[in-house]
Design brief:
about 550 residues, alpha/beta, Nucleotidyltransferase, domain 5, Hypothetical protein af1432, 3 domains, six-stranded mixed β-sheet, 14 strands
Length: about 550
């Protein structure tokens, strides 16, 4: 849990920087994306406050000259005007923009960028394929916690595909290859449904184009390393939506961390190539424009995973535009170390949500200290949970009172809703559910079978919720007046009599801590019942 301490200390020691609102635009081959974020200088982190996307097909270039067509330029300018208006309405302090494959390769690409600056006042940075890969890498690092493990990522765009390999020290390998979903659809797919010869030609071309980057990627791996493989952007996210609705009734609230086996991706591709465009467009999560190019995009993904010997794809909802923001924060001193930021993704996002819902952090951190003290003292005695469960306890403790942002009445239920629907980056869907439920049961009723969201979980996950929420209840009682009345806590377990002794030291010698002791007596029965122990409290003066 060192990262939690580092982030907490960072909040206290961060040099003075101003909060600001920043817009970031990605002018891609298929789409123009914009994200507007609120940057919190003290954590530091950013929260997305608005998104805009328009499929402009800038990659529909003139077949003879290779120029961006007048129609594509006009569609792009119209989309960029909407982005500019949205950023202005949200009082963005600055709008930054990058252009990628289609603009890079078009003879009139620079002319297009000058037109954007003249008409909209937006300077666009035309970035190389390598730079695009680097910023995608930064975007993913800001949204996922790899736990120090080797990680790789693939971003399948309209005109190019970026593949990255990194570890907890550096990006070992960055590549950009001229195969993209729009480009390959235009070049190889001319029938509906696609015929066998077109599909075989498409596969062969993709394999040929990937040979060199795959070889270099493998050369950058150390013997025995198997990286976590992350997919970003439209093709990967659409696949996740199709896959999730095949396997459950509703799509997950967040795709971040969602995993798909290669065999399932291959099965989806086999299904897609038998379908017409109209049939593909009816699939869950499939837009009409995505249905046109999905076969080429998934083919790139399948061939890349097979050639790289990767069995699972993990989805990340952050990509280039978020990487543009992280890069800006690095350049302007908001972030000192991009890899330190990645290592602290989870605790930083907990603090970000706490800040958003105006949680009393000194009070929450005091309770968290008590909760982790009880957890550590009883580990392998009353429970056998490890570091992950310890992190869930800390996270839910920091956020357990977030529901007060809505109302004091039933605020534990409001806390569940806010946490469950928060942008908790770095956590999987089930981890967010666990954190939300531990926080939800910090008061009032203990977990019950009649509670639908609790009942639908596995026995293993229900056990985590029951035991960690019981620990949280004791910790909350120890700061009942929210004034730090208890200076320190020492826990001792007597296995012979199955008694947990809580030795409390007050902050003020003459304080009898009557309210804390009364609240402990009120809260401890659920803990005692769950762990089959007797809680004995002693106040030292």
């Amino acid at each position: 849990m060192a990262n939690i301490t580092q982030v907490s200390n960072g909040l206290k020691n961060k040099k003075a920087l101003k909060d600001c609102i920043l817009g970031a635009i990605d002018i891609g081959t298929n789409s123009i994306h914009m994200v507007v974020v609120q940057i919190n200088a003290q954590i530091p982190s950013f929260s997305i406050i608005a998104k805009e996307k328009d499929t402009v097909r800038l990659g529909d270039r003139h077949p003879e000259t290779g120029n961006l067509t007048e129609e594509a330029i006009n569609r792009s300018l119209a989309a960029l005007k909407r982005c500019k208006h949205l950023a202005d309405s949200l009082k963005a302090d600055q709008v930054i923009a990058v252009a990628t494959s289609a603009t890079r390769e078009a003879p009139n690409g620079q002319e297009f960028l000058r037109l954007i600056q003249a008409e909209l006042g937006i300077y666009v940075d035309l970035i190389s394929g390598q730079e695009e890969a680097r910023r995608i890498y930064l975007g993913v690092l800001s949204g996922m916690d790899f736990g120090g493990k080797v990680h790789a990522m693939i971003d399948i765009g309209g005109g190019s595909t970026e593949i990255v390999l990194g570890d907890n020290k550096e990006a070992r390998f960055l590549s950009s290859t001229k195969i993209g979903a729009v480009r390959l659809t235009q070049d190889f797919i001319h029938s509906d449904p696609i015929n066998h010869q077109e599909f075989f030609s498409l596969q062969a071309y993709v394999r040929g184009m990937l040979e060199r980057p795959v070889e270099e990627f493998k050369n950058a791996l150390n013997q025995g390393e198997t990286p976590i493989f992350v997919g970003t952007s439209g093709t990967a996210e659409t696949l996740a939506l199709i896959h999730s609705t095949q396997n459950q009734e509703v799509a997950p609230l967040t795709l971040n961390g969602y995993q798909i086996p290669l065999r399932d991706i291959e099965a989806i591709l086999s299904r897609l190539i038998t379908m017409s465009y109209a049939q593909r467009a009816t699939l869950p999560g499939m837009s009409e424009r995505r249905a046109e190019i999905i076969i080429a995009g998934v083919t790139i993904l399948v061939e890349a995973m097979k050639m790289l010997d990767i069995e699972y794809l993990t989805i990340c909802e952050r990509a280039l535009r978020e990487g543009v923001i992280v890069d800006w924060m690095l350049q302007h001193g908001y972030i000192e170390d991009r890899l330190a930021l990645q290592g602290e993704v989870r605790p930083r996002n907990i603090y970000k949500i706490a800040h958003k819902y105006r949680v009393d952090l000194p009070h929450a951190e005091k309770i968290a200290d008590f909760a982790l003290n009880i957890f550590d003292a009883t580990k392998n005695l009353l429970h056998s949970w490890g570091n992950l469960e310890r992190e869930y306890l800390w996270s839910s403790t920091i956020l357990h009172n977030s529901g007060l942002y809505i109302s004091h009445s039933a605020h534990h239920k409001h806390s569940y809703y806010l946490i469950r629907n928060a942008e908790l980056l770095g956590f999987s869907e089930i981890e967010i559910e666990l954190i939300a439920q531990i926080a939800r049961y910090h008061r009032k009723s203990k977990p019950k079978r009649k509670h639908e969201t609790y009942t639908c979980l596995s026995d293993y996950h229900r056990q985590i919720i029951k035991q960690l929420s019981a620990i949280l209840r004791l910790a909350i009682a120890l700061d009942r007046r929210q004034i730090g009345a208890i200076k320190s806590l020492e826990c001792r377990y007597d296995s012979e009599y199955r008694q947990l002794h809580l030795h409390l030291t007050p902050s003020l010698p003459n304080d009898d801590c009557a309210l804390e002791l009364w609240n402990l007596d009120y809260k401890k029965p659920i803990f005692e019942q769950e762990f089959q122990v007797k809680v004995i409290t002693t106040l030292h003066k």
